[in-house]
Specification:
Elements lengths: L1 H14 L4 H4 L11 H11 L3 H17 L2 H8 L8 H16 L3 H7 L2 H10 L5 H20 L9 E2 L6 E2 L11 H7 L6 H14 L1
Antiparallel strand pairs: 1-2
Amino acid sequence: MQSAIMCVADLFQVYGSELMPLADIGGSAKPTTSLLAQLLLKASSNDKRFVIEEVLRALTIMTDSVAPVPLLDHVLPYTAHRAAKVRGRAALVLAAGVARLDAAALAAYGTAGLVKAAGMLVSDNTPEAREAARQMLPRLHDAFAVSGGAQPEAMHLDPVGGKENRAEPTLRSNSSPQLESAAEAPVKSEWERFVFRTVLAVIG
């Protein structure tokens, strides 16, 4: 297994972004056909420390070798994985990808899906996920400021539903009375309103 993981790391180093679609066949919904899913699972559940260390090295090489946009597209759905440790590992990779984009590039990418993920991860029960969310939110705020509050209708994956996110989400009609009441409360800034609406679209 260790040799196979080392080969995967070498492949990412050589082929970079070209390998990403082949490494995530089936996505998070079909982990048996997704090499990325297997790496995240092995990094969080293997009982051999040397295997975990090798997988983490492979994930680091992948993060450094793959262009940020395809990296974000493929990793984002895993931040909603049912396994907490997988969410934590995926969140760290996502935060590293976000860190490689400046505010203008993030604004062009579209922050809605990333804000959804960060909004859920910031209260996750894994410290890795919480730390990753804290790292991402200031950068997403900067991107939101650069965009002037306008979010492009880019087709990026929804981290919760696995659906394409084409527009800024709105409040759901079946939101609880408490959430609807909170929605009417005064908010200090456009950024806070955007975060509130985006995260509420997930939990409402």
